Every structure is written in C-alpha cells, then in structure tokens.
Amino acid sequence: MIGVGTPDWESSKVPPLLRVSAALSWRFVAVVGALYIVSQAVGYMASVMIPVGIALLLAALLSPAVTQLTRVGVPRGLATGFVLVGGLAVVGGVLTFVITEFSNGLPELQNQVTASLSTIRDWLKDGPLHLSELQLQQYVDQLLETVKANQGEITSGALTTAATVGELLTGLVLALFTLIFFLHDGDGIWRFITRIVPRDVRARADLAGRRGFASLVSYVRATAVVAVVDAVGVGIGLWIVGVPLVVPLAALVFLGAFIPIVGAVITGVVAVLIALVANGPVAAAVVLAILIGVMQLESHVLQPLLLGRAVKLHPLAVVLAISTGLVVAGIAGALLSVPLLAVLNSGIRSLLSDADKHVDPRRVDVDEPQASAPKDLGDEHRVDELGSDDDDKKKESGRGRR
C-alpha cells in the first residue's frame, strides 16, 4: 500500500540539482514554445500586424502635436485632421523633391556608368588579364544566354514584385486608416484593451502600458534626430566629393537610420558603390571615410546621449532584436523590433518598480519623455481602482480630519 510519505521518499531519492534543473527545463521549454507560437502567429498575420505597428510608430511621432493643439482649444478631431494633412503634405513634398532630383541626376549617372564600364573594358584588355575582344564578346554572349534561359524566373519575379506592390499599397491604406483612429481616440482604445485585465491589477497594467508608449514616443523622437544628423552628414560629404544623386542618397540614409546600428550602414554602402561607379575608387574611399565618421558620431555620441536615455537598452540587445525581427518579418521586422523591445522594457520595469505602485495612470503624460521613467508621486496620487466612489470616500475622510 502506498503511504502518505511515499512522495517525500521518492523525491528524496532525486538529487536537488536534478529537481531544480528539471523544473527550470520544462519552464524554459514552455516559454520557448509560447514565443515560437507567437512568432508564427505574427508571421502569419504580418500583412495586418506590420501596418498596425507602423501606424503605432507614426502615432508616437504625431500624437504630441495633436495633444498640443488640443491644449490650446482645438477639438481633437480637427487637430487630428490638421496633423494628418500637414504630415502627408510634408511627406508628399519630400518624396516629390527626392523623385525629381533622382530623375534629374539619372542621365548624368548613366553617362558616368557608361564611362566606367568603358574603363573596366579597357582595363580587362590592357591590364594584367589581357583579354581579347573575342573573349569579352563571349562573356557578354554568355550573360545574354543566361538571361534568356532564366526568363521564366525573371517574369515570375516581376509578377511577384507587382503583387508585392499591391500588398504594399493595401498596407499603406490600412496603416493610414489605423493611424487616424490612434491619433483621434488612442486613449479610449487603450482603456478598452485594459478591460480584459483583472480588476485588481488593471491599474498597474494600465500604467505599464502608458510608460511603454511614453518610451516609444521618446524612441521615435531620438531616432528622428539621429536620422537627420546621419542624412545631413552623409549628404554634405557626398556633395563635397561630387557624387551624383546627393539628395536621394541622403534621403535613403535618413530612412535607413530608423533601423538602429545597421540601417544607416547598409544605405551608406549604396552611396559608396555609386561613388565607386560614378567617380572612381578615390572618391569611393573618401565617401567610405565620411560614412565611418558619421557612424562613429552616431555610435559614441548620439546613440548613448539620445537613444540611451530614451529606451535604456544595451547595444547587444538592440542587435539581437534587429536580427530576430529580420528573421521573423524581414525589413519590417527589423524596423519594428527595437521599438517593441523598448516598449516591453519600459513596461516591465514599471511593473517591477515599487515607485509605480501609488501612481495614478491618468496622471501620466505619455507625450512627455520623462513619463517613461517611473517615479513615486506620493500617496496623494494613489490609484483609484474603484473610480468615483473612492474619490467620494477620500473627500469625506478629508473633511473629517479638518
């Protein structure tokens, strides 16, 4: 017969190290499995999740402007319309300017590419390889034959690109539509979401979410400043060297800088390659030196000063987050991974902070950078989990003390 003490006897036969290792192992497996399921679900819903994530980033960028307009008496709906129209006008004007500059500089770039190809052809003939005209023609013919042999794959790739463009336009419409509601009633949407949280911890979850969004606002602001500095620095360097398409390349660096650490480097390599083709190896070396200088300024001055204070993330965590996002959702995942990590970091810090136990979520201004830092506001700002009834009780107790 199995006695009451049998489980204790059996557990005593298991070494403590093995028991602890087993307990940690199954919990680790459970966490990894949950993360895998979440990543698969996000990947499956990428066409919806990515536009919503981009809309959230844009809301973090534009919501302070909407808030400032409402504080001076402008209705929130009208303020949202003003900010959206103004933002679209700025983006449209910048895109029009970039496309015009690219179109104007393209003929010059084509001439320089043709001259560079002629230089390469002469080097192949007169250089150490000493290729003849017949050999060069054979290589060209082989290239044409390869293109013809893979015409089906090229055509299917073009069709895939057309489908991708269609999905991109659909995603842009969804992102714009979502952005309108985030700006107009983001606080109401958040309060509705927090209703699924149990009432006894709802206030802490509400506060953690607001801290996370405040951290996202700080991240977007700091990243925009870093992107402007990168684009201006690289653009001035390209202009001094005389590389064509200065404005489009600077705009490309600006967009790439929103992917921390690696984005500006990748887009800067494009500028180096264009300088190599258009102006030769010396100009490319100068542009590379300028790019390295700008990256050093970003890594050692701007990132610690701005992003370090905004999100408080270790550079290794940023690199791993970008790599994971790139694997899960491509470029969009790399773009959204660091903001997501910043939001989670700030929210978890708020949940673990003793100073946030007595902070009223309604008193947190998510449009101010300092809102992302937990601080104790005192018992006078204690969270009212029961709403107006607790307010009345506090007022009555206050009258009694007086």
TrEMBL record:
Source species, domain of life: Bacteria
InterPro entries recorded: AI-2E-like (IPR002549)
Coiled coil: none
Biased composition annotated in UniProt, kind: Basic and acidic residues: 376-402
A GO CC term assigned to this protein in UniProt: plasma membrane
Lyase among keywords: no
GO biological process, one term: transmembrane transport
Topology relative to the membrane: Multi-pass membrane protein
Pfam families tied to this protein: AI-2E_transport
Protein family (similarity comment): Belongs to the autoinducer-2 exporter (AI-2E) (TC 2.A.86) family.
Name of the protein: AI-2E family transporter
